[in-house]
Amino acid sequence: MVRVCFVCLGNICRSPTAEGIMQSLIRDAHLHEQIDVDSAGLGAYHVGAPPDRRAKEASEARGIGLNSRARQFTAEDFSSFDYVIAMDAENRQDLLNLAPDGEARAKVHLLRVFDLTAPADAEVPDPYYGGPHGFDNVFDMCQVACQGLLQTIRAEYQFN
Ligand code: 4NP
Predict the structure, then answer these.
(1) Domains defined for the chain, CATH in brackets
(2) 67/145 Cα distance (integer angstroms)
(3) Separation of CA 65 and ligand 1 centre (Å)
(4) Residue 128 CB less than 6 A away from ligand 1
(5) Tens digit of pLDDT for each residue in 6-55?
(6) Longest dimension (CA), the chain
(7) Is-catalytic flag, 126?
(8) Per-residue pLDDT, 1
């Protein structure tokens, strides 16, 4: 099993959106027995909470349901995942600071590096304090990047 964890700050907006999209892509590709997806947050403010209503609405409008509960990412999570996917540069830095060793640090990637049309170091911006448009933007960015991430995993693990 290849394990992927999407990580943002609160685990109620961006990472649950990426998790829902990736789960849908994996199911469509019949790879749900090979690839497992989770999400977590670096902050603890929303632990136990469902995804933000605005994130759910933006995703449901595209046919993707979000059913996660927020949890905090811990250093121990590095041993459970092959890919630890950060939404923005601050998340990435926080993950690198939390990583116990080089093997763990090598698992950390910015999500949008898997979108080959995005500029280097492109981020998925925090939509929490913005309007609903920000959530559609997050969805679109996550969708394109998750397609690229799935292609990368398929190539690396030779899932055809
Ligand atoms: P997320 O969005 O990191 O995409 O889940 C946020 C959710 C909550 C907060 C910040 C960002 N907050 O400060 O409470």
Answers:
(1) 2-157 (3.40.50.2300)
(2) 21
(3) 19
(4) yes
(5) 999 999 999 999 999 999 999 999 999 999 999 999 999 999 999 999 99
(6) 41
(7) yes
(8) 96
